[in-house]
Write a structure and sequence with these properties.
The structure holds three protein chains of three kinds.
Chain A lengths: L1 H14 L1 H48 L9 E5 L19 E5 L4 E5 L30 H17 L2 H8 L1 H6 L5 H34 L6 H31 L3 H18 L3 H5 L10 H25 L4 H41 L3 H13 L2 H26 L36 H31 L5
Chain B lengths: L1 H14 L2 H41 L3 H6 L4 E3 L19 E3 L12 E3 L2 H4 L11 H17 L4 H6 L1 H6 L5 H33 L7 H31 L3 H30 L5 H29 L7 H47 L3 H12 L4 H21 L4 E5 L4 E5 L17 H31 L5
Antiparallel strand pairs in B: 1-2, 2-3, 4-5
Helix pairs in contact in B: 1-8, 2-5, 2-8, 5-9, 5-10, 8-9, 8-15, 9-10, 9-13, 9-15, 10-12, 11-12, 13-15
Chain C lengths: L7 E9 L5 E10 L3 E7 L5 H8 L7 E6 L2 E2 L4 H4 L3 E4 L11 H11 L7 H10 L16 H15 L3 E5 L7 H16 L3 E6 L2 H7 L2 E6 L2 E7 H6 L2 H10 L6
Parallel strand pairs in C: 3-8, 3-9, 6-7, 7-8
Antiparallel strand pairs in C: 1-2, 1-4, 4-5, 9-10
The chains are: A mainly alpha, B mainly alpha, C alpha/beta.
Amino acid sequence: MIKYMLKRQVVEDILSLTFLINFVLILGVVLAFSLIFLSDYRGQLADYAVKSAKNERTLRHFSEDPRNANAYANMQLVMKPRAERFISLSYEDRSPQGFYFRMLSYELRVLSRKEDVSGIGWYIPVTTREFISPPAFFSPDLTFIVQFLLSFLAVILAFNAVTGEKEAGTLRLIYSNPAKRSHLVAMKYLSAMLTLGLPLLLSLIIATVMLEVSSIVPLASGFLYNLMMFALLSFLYLSVFVLIGLFCSTVTRTSRHSLVLGLLFWLFLVVILPKSPGLLLNLKRFDVPTGERIESLVEKTSQDFQEKYKKEAMALRDNEEAFMRLVNRVGPEVDQARQGVRDQYLTRKIAIVKTLRKINMISPASLYEYATSSVAGTGIFHFENFWNQARQFGNGFISFVKQISGDKEPSSPFQFDIRSITNKPIDYNAIPKFEEKEIRPGERIKEALPYVALLALYNLFLFTFVFYKFGRYDVR
Amino acid sequence: MMRTLFIKEVRDALSSRRFWVILALCLILIPLGVEVSLKDYQTRLQNYREAVRIYREETKQVQDVLYKEGAKAFAPPAQLSFLSLGLELVLPNVAETPAGRADPPVVMRLGNNESRDNLYEFFTGPLDLVFVVAVVMSLLAVILTYGAISGEKELGTLGQVLSNSVPRAKIILAKATANGLVLVIPFLLSLILSLTLVELQGGLPSAAGAWTSIGLGALVSVLLVGVFFNLGLFVSSLTKQAVPALVTLLLVWVFLYGVYPRLAAAAAQILHPVKSDALVALEKSQIKHDIEKARDAELETVAQTMPRDFKSEAFKAGQKKQQEIHDRYQAKLEAGWKAIDRDVEARRSTRDALTADIARLSPVSSFVRPMAELARSGWLESGQFRREVRQYEEVLNREIFDKQRIIRMPRGGMISNEADPKAPAPVFAYVPTPEDDVVRDILPDVALLILFNLVFFAGAFVTFLRYDPR
Amino acid sequence: MTNQQPILKADDLSKRYEDGVLAVDHLNLNIYPGEVYCLLGANGAGKTTTINLFLNFIPPTTGTCYVNGIDVTKDPLEAKKYVSFVSENVMLYGNFTARQNLDFFAKLGGKTNLAKSDYYQVMRRVSLQEKAFEQRVKNFSKGMRQKLGISIAVIKDAPGILLDEPTSGLDPKAAEEFLEILEELKKEGKAILMSTHDIFRAKEIGDRVGIMKEGRLVMERTREELQYEDLVKIYIDYMKSEPLKI
């Protein structure tokens, strides 16, 4: 019985105009996004290459004579552009792009998105974001297409599942036969998922082929694996909205009411609700000082130290060796204190973002976004991981310099003693270099797990409700 | 006849709760969005004031500029950013000279501090008026009209109405005006409510220009909602069933809203490519490197001939010669950099103009752009800031940095600055874009929006005249 | 009766759809004031298309429809002043009450100065229950909706009335009541064209009966002639015979 019903439903759906429009336009949008991504990505790779080259030059300069690294020598540790941005852009564009690492110190300052220090002392103006950009909630990634567009289509496909059949009179006809109630719902659900899944999978395949052919994006098997996970997550997410459509169909009497209810649900869950945490940002407990303020707090820390050790320093001012020993002892302490201030505020910001994200977890759209960005290794998860790697690199670099200098601490910038560093050339290949490592798949999945679990819970709850409601539905 | 049709449409809208839903959504979202944006503005204003204060405290004299953190210029946040946050978080709002010793000519480094500090970036953007209009109101317009014609046909009432002596033109006009009011009145009411709230919190600037901007902003918003409204009517009269109309409209919306503007930018970059900024930096650095090399070679030559005696005439002559060499190469460097800058700026502005023109074909772009300009958080204002920064740069260079004097000796050298270290540091005062310039700039977009409205309505009108009511 | 001008006239009317189907084939009809003309035929015979042609919902391929002497394609607005329409499935504005619907359509039909009592009177005349007058139409049964439909035609008071299968789906009592009203309207001098496949009622109420088959009017009989012939037999015979060749 259910086999026939399913076949009929699928054929009916495929023959409908809605399906055709669906198909053509999803395909079109995915292809358009692919083109946009490729054009953006080219630029990002070029920029990354220039920065890497600059870092390399700095290190080569350093390897010739470590004393070339004066107080202002720095490297820019930036996140490597990855093809996974096409799957889920998340905060990649909006989070800090990297860190400004002042070599020979513990200083790791956040690189603001637009502020780029070239190391030569002048500015690189704002780049690709300056053109007409649509309001921020739109991101040209696959997650957006599914999260926004396909969820809408899911509601459209499911809203008249029950009310439509009732109005056509076929509902009574079906149930005058030995057909289980649950079968109708299951069949509607399956056919809707099929109608959505087919264009989606096809578009993903075509998009992957496009990226491959462009030869800009190196498609390792890792990317395909991430894409598969993305597809699975998308099905889980779309299932929620199909069920919402079915739900509306079982609680209203006419198709029109069902559609309006479904649309309102969708508008609320997908468009309005994800913005709500932004409203809470005005509360006191989410207050974080500005960058300027933080830097001036950092300076204050330095001054405090100066005050603290002033007497001692004055006393030793005639004994150069002892004075330098004091500097070498205190210097790193000051550095770490300064960096500690910065780190503390960055940690706090990230904590606030995470708290507000938790509030957002009511919306399946947000759950889906967080899940895909975790799996793709982008977004805040990526930034935190990157920060850890940058910190580790910074510490490792200092240890290396200490080691080659015979374990003498390089001094902090404001008490400058370049003599504590060796001036013998070192092997370029021996210098630690910053190479951002990808987050392991296991960790990414672990990160995504809570969101996936909640989405599954949503599905379960809606399933149960729909089946229950339809069980008692008045088919007349 | 018109009156009858009109009253029926209005009654229909009221009794089917469409009006009430729209009213509720508008009354909640618009004031909420405006309130939140206002709070955000106030935070940014506070940050701005604090940054200026900290800077002014620490940088009072020329020597502070030379030897401490350098000179800084700040742009205040846009007062009307509750209308449109625009590119406040993207375009430069602070300029600074490099900290520590800086070689002339000094170029101020432009940056945006907001993006570092503003957590809104993490939450899919702000809930400003542009968002509510471009997303919520236009979707509501579409939901209101997708079934206007095909829905009545499906119901069968269209046939009943057309069996009477009623001109089709009147039917569609009545539908358009009644439903239009159902959409626009809640919007305007909510807008007035929001503005009152803003006023109560002392947020509205008292300058007359601000009210013009707000008025124009309201007009432009209504025009955009009108575009989607008329588009909905048009698509409704093209289809036999209501649901395909809705699907088509939503996909068109997504395309116009997000896909097309990005495509426009990509197209413009292909048609008129501009070198990426990293490459420009590289070029400039190469030029500087070459010039400095040549300069240093010449300086060395002169340095070899200079005696150790600082007081001798020969020494002073040598110093003068070195200064002349330095100035000569300096001018060369400035000229070289200026040429590159001019070239890049010219190319960039052509490309941006091209992007804007291509993007204008989407009514959403024709809406987003003027709103940003009116709120002073757009490209005009950023251009203004850049121009002011360049002027300030010239002042700084003229009064401080170009007064650098160098002496190059065989082993090392000396750099000093002739400017009076205790003189007060030049201060940056920002002058915003004049109102007239903004209005002139947005006129083509406003005209386009009006055109879109007319074209879509005409389309709906003409199609309906031949619409099959069976 | 025949020395008057026909209110509803189809002159060599033909309609071929885009997909090639010939729905109406050289139809000639003349319906005079004070008569009920029943158009019988199977589904797809062309009855509804004929009515749609009279209402100018679709343009004819050849021929002309006249309402009160006016060509409906040349001056549709003028023509529609003289004709009322009751569709097979009367669907009105569900959120409005019966009176509100009646009020709206009355005004569209040109009667702008009527009072509430006038509407009530008409609704009573068509035997609609009192309590339904101020109820929303979306809760009405089919019988109630049809009655409201005919009341719209009554209140427009146009000389011609077009009815598309008005009694299909009505219970016998409701159908009887409906036909009684038609009889009254006929006596008032209205020209009524009613398409139906209810042979029995057609025989009862029709002054003339025409049978349509595949777009063509194959037979026409007056009431007197039908007294001697069995309409049922004629009808079924025609239905059973070979399809007409075009």
